[in-house]
Design goal:
Order of helices and strands: HHHHHHHHHHHHHHH
Oligomer: single chain
Radius of gyration: 21 Å
Largest sheet: none
Shape: globular
Number of helices: 15
């Protein structure tokens, strides 16, 4: 159920890209890719608090302390929602400057700004949809977690078509459809956590000085445990940001449009790997709390084998079906089409390494080895990625831009092997 729910979440992103590309054009596709780091920032906040709170709650449940587990998840939802309300307000107040900072050219700025202003205010709903998945699965309801994702995705797909094609609302329609879909999914999670029969549910937070001090300590620990999950999303945002800069330098706006297709296709790969890691997380954390090291190892190895198998399948499909994949987003008439068809097979060579890295990061989070998880994430998502994006094009030309991410993932996998 976790993998299926994540696939529907990815379909929600991909369908948005297909409707934007077919209904508005390649410039609109590039504009959405410019502001995508903000969407990933909100997702990262949700995952950070979701991972951190669920690991802590899993261990408390294994020690038969359900009340403490409820307090942990309530604190994580309240703090993450307040944080995103503040950041969303700032992004909207300084929208033109933010779009320019993210690399939007004069041609793309109006479209990017319009999309951003209608989607960013709903960032808290997106974060809750992501963090809530962990709490529902930990409570023994992976099917309902899947239903929340499916409802959000299906609603977004229907509204995307309605708003873009029959009503002709353009970027406003695409952003509004995504906002409504995520908000409905988030409300389903809220209603679930309000039910008294759930082991994990909302618990009143005391406002005394001692309670606030304990909450600050709890939130700090959750953030440390989940920081690598946040950094994984920020790493994808970094890949988009740096990639946009490099593509617009070498191949102009058409290059950014081609790269945006890879970025739209990429979430389904990431979300499947992430779903495998998240499915193993409560099993690993619970048994880690019981000192059952053999069960922990078996769960991790099973997750690793599953992710690698999926990575091989994804890579083969992308390599052999790149014209069909690109054709879903834009027509042959756009120059970006040929750039993307040639580039996607190169980009797919890193999918297997990416599988190993994501599952390994999830394992280190689950056994409270947050330092390892954070170092690996920083290495693959920032240091190596940036170096490869700026260095490889100088050696290999346009091919080097597409191979930058695979090389960064491969080098990170070698680093993980050294740790083992």
């Amino acid at each position: 159920p976790t993998v299926l729910g994540m696939i529907f979440s990815a379909l929600f992103v991909i369908t948005d890209g297909i409707f934007v590309g077919k209904g508005i054009g390649s410039d609109a596709l590039a504009a959405v890719n410019i502001v995508a780091p903000l969407w990933l920032f909100s997702t990262g906040i949700g995952l950070m608090f979701g991972v951190g709170a669920s690991v802590v709650a899993s261990i408390h449940l294994s020690h038969n302390k359900p009340k403490v587990a409820r307090i942990n998840i309530t604190q994580s939802i309240v703090v993450s929602s307040l944080l995103l309300m503040c950041t969303s307000t700032l992004f909207c107040l300084f929208a033109p400057q933010v779009v320019h900072l993210l690399g939007g050219s004069e041609r793309l700025e109006p479209l990017a700004g319009e999309y951003m202003l209608w989607f960013v205010p709903f960032s808290a709903s997106l974060a809750l949809l992501n963090s809530g998945m962990f709490f529902l699965r930990l409570d023994g309801s992976p099917n309902f977690a899947m239903l929340c994702n499916i409802t959000a995705a299906v609603l977004n797909i229907i509204l995307d078509y309605l708003f873009i094609f029959p009503l002709g609302w353009g970027m406003f329609g695409a952003a509004l459809a995504s906002a409504i879909g995520t908000t409905v999914g988030a409300l389903m999670i809220v209603f679930y956590l309000m039910r008294r029969r759930c082991a994990l549910r909302f618990h009143p937070i005391k406002m005394s000085r001692k309670s606030m001090q304990l909450m600050r300590r709890n939130i700090g620990y959750m953030c440390r445990l989940g920081s690598s999950a946040f950094l994984c999303e920020v790493a994808i945002a970094c890949m988009m940001f740096v990639g946009n800069q490099v593509f617009i330098h070498y191949l102009k706006e058409d290059g950014v449009a081609a790269f945006s297709i890879a970025c739209y296709f990429f979430p389904i790969i990431f979300m499947v790997y992430n779903a495998i890691a998240q499915s193993a997380q409560p099993i690993i954390s619970y048994n880690y709390g019981l000192n059952e090291s053999q069960r922990v190892c078996r769960a991790y190895l099973l997750a690793l084998k599953t992710a690698i198998g999926c990575g091989v399948c994804f890579a083969l499909v992308t390599i052999f079906c790149s014209p069909e994949i690109v054709g879903m987003f834009i027509d042959h008439s756009y120059p970006a089409y040929d750039i993307a068809v040639k580039g996607l097979p190169l980009y797919a060579t890193g999918f297997v390494f990416f599988a190993v890295n994501i599952v390994s990061i999830g394992y280190f989070q689950s056994v409270e080895r947050a330092k390892y998880a954070t170092v690996i994430t920083l290495l693959r998502g920032f240091i190596l990625l940036t170096a490869c994006f700026f260095g490889l094009p100088l050696l290999l030309g346009d091919r080097g831009i597409w191979l930058a991410t695979p090389l960064a993932e491969m080098l990170t996998t070698l680093f993980i092997l050294v740790i083992y």
